[in-house]
Amino acid sequence: MSTHQIQISAFQDWMKCAVLDIANQELGEGYFKSVLDELKGYALTINCLFKGQYLIGFSLSYRCSLGQFIDATQSHMSISLSSSARILVVKTIVVKAEHQRKGCGTGLLKHLIEEAFREDTKAILALGWKSKSGVNIQHLMATFGFEERCEIKEFWKSGSEKYQYQCPDCGHPCNCSAIIYSKLLSNSNS
Ligand SMILES: [Zn+2]
C-alpha cells in the first residue's frame, strides 16, 4: 500500500464544487442539496479530507439536543440521556469510491470523536444507510464502539419524493432504512 498524505481541513467556500461532486457521485444526484435544506437552522460542520491537493471525502455533522434529534427523525430509541443533552450528529461520512477501505472514513470519524470529547457533548449519534449491500458505516461503527440503537424504515422516502433524487441503491423513491448508532461519551463528569 502506498503512503497517503491525508489531511483534514474545515470546509471553505472554494471546496464547494468538489464536495458537491463527491456527494452527487457517491450519494446520488440531488441528495446532498436536500440534506442542506432539511438541516437549515442547524450550524453544520463539514470536514474535508484531502489526499495531497485532492478532496477525496468529507463528513457532515451538526450539534443539537437529543430531543431535537428524536423529534426530527421520529425515531424510537431508549438511550440513557435526558432529552436536553447536547449531542453530535454524524449525518454523512462519504469517501470517493476509489479511496474507500483505506482508513479515510476512520480518519474523518476519529476527528469528530476527538472534537466531541473536547466539548460538552454527551453522545455522538450517527446515521447509517442500510441498502441491499449492507450498512455503509457498519465497519466504522464497530471500530469505534458505537451501538446500534434503532432502524428507521423508508427514512429517505419522503425526501427523495420531495427533492426528486435517485437512490444509488434502490432508485426512486428510496425505500432504504436508516440505522441509528450511538456512542455515549464519558466526559460529562470532567
Ligand atoms: Zn434507497
Q: How would you characterize the overall build of this protein?
A:
By secondary structure, the chain is α+β, with helices and mostly antiparallel strands. It has one domain (6-189): Aminopeptidase (3-Layer(aba) Sandwich), CATH 3.40.630.30. Helices cover 29% and strands 32% of the residues. The chain is built from 6 helices and 8 strands; from the N terminus they run βααββαβαββαβαβ. It has helices at residues 16-27, 31-38, 66-73, 104-118, 138-143, 157-163; strands spanning 6-10, 44-51, 54-65, 86-95, 123-131, 134-135, 147-152, 177-184. β4 (86-95), α4 and β5 (123-131) form a beta-alpha-beta unit. The structure holds zinc ion. Zinc ion binds next to loops.
Care to give the gist of this entry?
With 190 residues, the chain is α+β, with helices and mostly antiparallel strands. Helix content is 29%, strand content 32%.
